[in-house]
């Protein structure tokens, strides 16, 4: 179904109000602009649960009318190039400066210089880069656990893990996936579209770069896909490739629906979507090791940010059949209920969602 965010957030708000009437639980989901901070235990011990891990069907929702947006036009796909190194959170530093990773078309067009954002703000001059090991699962760093990858474009490191489960055709399969959201790009304020076809651009929640450090960047569909920005308002199906790289580093590709099915059906995960969510601030058990965090979203209506620490959203490299010009496939997970993403979920391409990358093997 189309999970139009206005209708969906209203529905989740109703669920939260019912939950709050029963108890005062900080992990309850109540989407609004002033989300409180939630916390939970950092570590878990594997245990079984009766939670369902299979993907079930759901009823469709009628989306609201699509608002107009102004985007720059381009006739070719873009790819990123090297950027100024910046220390990652895993290495004790943070990419608080704008990335100069350039996006270019098939004609090798690139930007001559990086832009800095005047809208980005730091919450503290004494900011300590976030330690992403806090969000990881019980697998930690044994032989079959987490490893690190350094993105040469900006020097940032990411934890990743190989997860074995069953895929969409019920066969045993494995996926090697980042256990953090991608964080790269030049900062763009929430009230603007990501329309520079020469550079990777990102939104930071509330235009605060410290949120990008902890939760990763937020990206419109065309941006995540590294396609011309016009692809947010017209179909670009002919530009979508198998193992589509998008803004992922070389050797990695964008997370797709089959990957999600493997993760939720991970061999150690008996907790469904709860087993995908981090124990750190997102009410999960993280049995899968996927370490999902509530990065929230950027709403194209007004360019506002919503649902930090409450909901995780992502796009797939596929347009939605409801309207291929302005809708893309995607998924979402709430920290307050166990609703599993469905194969027909999707939303407007102009939302800003998180990106996860999968290693090409």
Describe this structure in words.
- There is one protein chain.
- With 361 residues, the chain is α+β, with helices and mostly antiparallel strands.
- The protein has one domain (1-56, 72-109, 122-361).
- The chain contains 4 helices and 14 strands.
- A 3-stranded antiparallel sheet has the order 3-4-5. It has a 3-stranded antiparallel sheet with strand order 11-12-13. Strands 1-2 form a two-stranded antiparallel sheet.
- The two termini are 31 Å apart.
- Mean pLDDT is 77; it is low at 6-123.
Task: Briefly characterize the structure.
By secondary structure, the protein is an alpha+beta fold. 11% of the residues lie in helices and 17% in strands.
